[in-house]
Structure formats: C-alpha cells, structure tokens
Amino acid sequence: MSWFSSYVRSSIGAKQVMAATGLAMVLFAIVHMLGHLGMFSGQDAYNAYAHFLQTLGGPKWIARGGLLAVFVVHVASAMRLVARNRAARPVAYAVYKPVRSTLMSRTMAMTGLVLLAFIIYHLLHFTLGMVQPEFFHKLDQAGRYDAYSMFVRGFQNVGIFASYLVAILLLSLHLGHGASSWLQSLGLRHPKYSPKLDKLGPAISLILFLGYMAPPTAVLLGLIKLPGA
Fold first, then answer.
1. C or N: which end of the chain has fewer Cβ atoms within 10 Å?
2. How far is CA 115 from CA 44, 89, 128, 169, 170, in A?
3. Number of compact structural domains in the chain
4. Residue 226 domain-assigned?
5. Is pTM beyond 0.90 here?
C-alpha cells in the first residue's frame, strides 16, 4: 500500500481530504451564486452569460468532471469517517450529552445526504430538463437557450420555490459550518486569529443563503418577470 493510500485511509487524512474538497465546493458555490445574481440584469445579460458557459466546450466538461470528482471524494471521505466513528463506539451512549458540538456538526452527514438528493433533483430540472420539459431549451430572440425564462417559470411554482428554500438553507449551513471546521482540519487556525475565523462560517452561511435566495424570491414576488409580462 502506498503512503498516499495509507494517508487517505487514516482518520487525519480523510478529515484533511474532506476539508480540502469542502473548501473547493465553497468556492464553487460562491461563483455559482454570483452567476445566478445575473438574473437581476435581465434576460439578455443572463442568457448571454449562460450561452458563454455552454460554448466553453472542453474546459466546461473538464470543470464539470473536476467538480464531480471533488464531490465524490468528499462524500467518500465523509462516509469513511462516519463508519470509522461508529466502529470506534459500537455501543451507543446510555445518555448522550454533547459538550461542545452543535446540532449542525452532529447532523452534517444527514444534511449531506439531503443535499445530494437536492443536487440530483436540481440537475434533472435545470440541466436535463426533466422536471419542466415544456420550458427546457426554448430559444430567445437571439437564438440562444432562454435560461432566463426557464428560471422564472421554475420559481413561479411555489412547490419548487419551497424545496429550493429548504435545500439552500441546509446548503448554506452545511458549507458555512464546514468552512470553519475544515480550516482547523487543515491546520490553518491560530489562537491569534481564531475569534475572527469563528465568524467566517456564519458569514459564509448568510452570504450564500441571501445570494442564492434573492433571485428566486424576486421571481415569486413578481420583481423578476418574463419578457413582456
């Protein structure tokens, strides 16, 4: 067995791998959020942005493949740690009284599974067009895929909006909590800066939640409308 295999199979290695992949997902979530905020710029600007992404060709698929690899490695590391922790204590506590852990830290595995289900649903909706196929790959006046109108049609549906709200809340809390704990796993915390770093997670959670929910909420309130509406 190579040193790398031994490293990633160890508890410390799995935690550090999960930390690195988690931080990568935080960065992707921020970039993705900024792209969706383009909905406030109108149909032409948002469709131009979506069209640019679609025309990237090879780099687009490399980025997608890399993101998928990061996600798979993150999930695999998390499952390994959960299994290792359970094996270390096969008999449950008679009375469990957490001292320093929070509800979010104790439910990271559960929220991760919920988020996995949501990501699959989200891809089926906006990437594969299987949720609202009647609005998928329609063209705008410039002959581009009308991602703007599809977005509006999607979040005019209260059920879709509600599921997105719950998922984004969990996503924000999950990544925000991870952003603080993962820095510790990577050995990037220092007593001098710990108080500031402790505020990083809640700040990221708030930014992600507000940033992701702003466009769908504007759609539901009628502030972002279909062209000509």
1. N
2. 31, 27, 18, 10, 7
3. 1
4. no
5. no
Cα 106 to Cα 86, 87, 94, 130, 169, distances in angstroms: 13, 17, 17, 34, 17
Q: Could you list the residue range(s) of the whole structural domain that residue 210 is in? A: 3-89+106-220
* CATH code for position 127: 1.20.1300.10
Q: What is the pLDDT of residues 160-214, one digit of tens each?
A: 999 999 999 988 888 877 666 666 666 665 566 666 667 777 888 899 999 999 9
| 31, amino acid identity | V
Task: Write the DSSP symbol of residue 139.
Answer: B
- 66 assigned to some structural domain: yes
Helix ranges restricted to H, the chain: 3-9, 11-36, 43-54, 58-88, 103-106, 108-122, 147-155, 158-185, 194-198, 200-220
In a domain, 127, yes or no: yes
Burial of 122 (0-12, 13-18, 19+ CB in 10 A): middle
Name the phi and psi angles at 139, rounded to 5: -105, 145
- Domain membership flag for residue 150: yes
- CB 122, CB 114: distance < 8 Å: no
The tokens describing 142, both together, are 């410039």
